[in-house]
Amino acid sequence: MGFISKLIGIPLGWVIWVFYNFLGHHYVLSLFLFTLFTRLLLLPSTIKQQKSAVKNARLKPKMDALQKKYANNKQKYQEELMKLYEKEGFNPMSGCLPLLIQLPILYGLINVVYNPLTHIVRLGSETITKIGEIVKEVAPSFANQAEIYAINHATDEAFASLGADVIEKMQSINLNFLGINLGEKPTWAFNVLLLIPILSGLTSLLVSLISQKNMTAQQGGTANNPTMKGMMLFMPLLSLLFTFGVPAGVGLYWIFSNIISAVQTVILYKVYNPQQIAAQMEAEEEAKKEEERQARIEAKKALKQARENGEDIELDEKALSQKEINKRKIAEARKRMAEKYGEEYTEKEEDQ
Question: Does residue 249 contact residue 182 with C-beta atoms inside 8 Å?
Answer without folding.
Answer: yes
